[in-house]
């Protein structure tokens, strides 16, 4: 029996983890679930999986609904620290699936309470990897990247000398607009941008997939996680999304890892030790899916955000500013406050502003400085973009 902590249980990653646990029957025991506002869902999860500890991070929802859990003898906390302090020994595995930069602090707090940490939260790695890495080492906690691309890279190179790697390719589906021209979808409604051809994901990450920002984030993550130079990382479009990473070695060999488009596969393989026997399903390998497999070079005219890869990603405030600006713009787009093309134009334009670029050669000394920068960027954007939203919606 392996005990688990699940941060962000009501999101898409949380759902995938709980599906794995459900299919694995008695192999895992959930010790702690967390959510922000989805009370109805976490209540059902806690009851179904017999979880005795729950964290509701939103104070209003905690005050309003905590009594419902107590009727089922479920201990409810509003502070994750208070919940974690009740653990007298390390749990086997923690999955960090809280979306956004809000996932960084809970992730850091949980590291000393777990033997293994799996992160599927891009923003935490991009903005706070140096702090995560330091805490992992200090607490002797193992790390496993859960994103399908990074899990694939990790699986392919963990027994290899990193100096023997010539190139790593992260594959992108191209999103729902692969065969469109950017000028033809400048006013496309969010409901169409949310129609990813291969994956079922949350709204924010689905929009990031359409703009290719998701893949830019994954390049930054790979650079940090695997401590590899940016010039050894590249993006290629693979519309079928069956191959998740390709590694080309200096010895002439090229390896790739493929699996179906579900996060349950990397999650299940992460939760089990290397020599353990387990089965995802009893289906045979479907080789027909690989007939006509094609790869394409991304077009910067269709995906102009790829120009962001020319910047330096060295654990500076640039990473935090980039993530925050993108978060705000995607949120505005989902609320129909700006049009689709404005995500691209505004992001590139804002990164060039001296108000932000003056921080690109400075690094945060602690997590508080990360949070302060996030708030500073949001305040600037909401002050300076508010008057321009209608303009961008109409004219871009």
Q: If helices are DSSP runs of H or I spanning 4 or more residues, what is the number of helices?
A: 16
Proportion of residues in β-strands:
15-25%
Mean of pLDDT: 91
User: Superfamily at the CATH H level of the largest domain?
Assistant: NAD(P)-binding Rossmann-like Domain
Count the beta strands: 11
Q: How many domain units?
A: 3
* N to C succession of SSEs: EHEHEHEHEHEHEHEHHHEEEHHHHHH
What is the overall silhouette?
globular
| N-end to C-end Cα span | 56 Å
Contiguous low-pLDDT stretches (5 residues minimum) are none
Percent helix, as a range, is 40-55%
Class of secondary structure makeup: alpha/beta
The CATH topology of the largest domain is Rossmann fold
Specify the biggest β-sheet.
7 strands, parallel
Widest beta sheet: strand line-up = 4-3-2-1-5-6-7
Which CATH first-tier class of the largest domain would you pick?
Alpha Beta
* CATH architecture descriptor text of the largest domain: 3-Layer(aba) Sandwich
Write the SSE topology.
Layout: E1 2-7, H1 12-23, E2 28-35, H2 39-48, E3 53-56, H3 59-70, E4 75-77, H4 80-84, E5 91-96, H5 104-110, E6 114-119, H6 122-138, E7 142-145, H7 148-157, E8 165-172, H8 190-193, H9 203-211, H10 213-225, E9 233-237, E10 243-249, E11 254-258, H11 264-271, H12 317-334, H13 340-351, H14 354-357, H15 367-384, H16 389-395
Parallel strand pairs: 1-2, 1-5, 2-3, 3-4, 5-6, 6-7, 8-9
Antiparallel strand pairs: 8-10, 10-11
């Amino acid at each position: 029996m392996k005990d688990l902590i699940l941060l962000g249980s009501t999101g898409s990653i949380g759902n995938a983890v709980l599906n794995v646990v459900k299919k694995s029957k008695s192999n895992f025991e959930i010790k702690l679930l967390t959510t922000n506002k989805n009370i109805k869902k976490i209540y059902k999860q806690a009851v179904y999986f017999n979880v005795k500890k729950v964290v509701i991070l939103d104070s209003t929802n905690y005050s309003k609904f905590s009594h419902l859990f107590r009727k089922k003898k479920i201990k409810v906390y509003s502070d994750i620290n208070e919940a974690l302090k009740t653990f007298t020994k390390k749990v086997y595995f923690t999955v960090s699936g809280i979306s956004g930069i809000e996932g960084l602090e809970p992730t850091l707090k949980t590291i000393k309470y777990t033997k293994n940490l799996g992160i599927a939260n891009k923003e935490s790695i991009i903005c706070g990897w140096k702090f995560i890495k330091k805490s992992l080492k200090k607490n002797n906690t193992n790390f496993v990247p859960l994103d399908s691309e990074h899990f694939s890279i990790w699986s392919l190179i963990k027994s290899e000398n990193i100096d023997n790697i010539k190139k790593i390719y992260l594959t992108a589906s191209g999103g729902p607009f692969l065969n469109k021209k950017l000028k033809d979808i400048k006013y496309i409604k969010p409901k169409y941008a949310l129609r990813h051809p291969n994956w079922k994901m949350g709204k924010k990450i689905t929009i990031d997939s359409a703009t290719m920002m998701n893949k830019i984030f994954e390049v930054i993550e790979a650079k940090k996680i695997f401590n590899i130079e940016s010039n050894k990382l590249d993006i290629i479009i693979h519309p079928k999304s069956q191959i998740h990473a390709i590694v080309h070695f200096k010895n002439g060999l090229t390896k790739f890892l493929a699996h179906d488009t579900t996060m349950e596969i990397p999650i299940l393989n992460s939760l089990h030790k290397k020599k353990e026997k387990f089965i995802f399903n009893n289906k045979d390998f479907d080789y027909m899916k690989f007939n006509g497999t094609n790869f394409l070079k991304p077009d910067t005219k269709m995906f102009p955000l790829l120009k962001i890869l020319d910047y330096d990603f060295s654990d500076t405030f640039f990473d935090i500013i980039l993530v925050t600006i993108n978060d705000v713009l995607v949120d505005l787009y989902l609320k129909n406050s700006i049009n689709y093309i404005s995500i691209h134009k505004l992001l590139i334009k804002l990164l060039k502003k001296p108000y932000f670029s003056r921080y690109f050669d400075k690094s945060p000394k602690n997590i508080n400085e990360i949070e302060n920068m996030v708030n500073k960027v949001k305040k600037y954007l909401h002050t300076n973009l508010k008057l321009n939203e209608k303009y961008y919606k109409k004219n871009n």
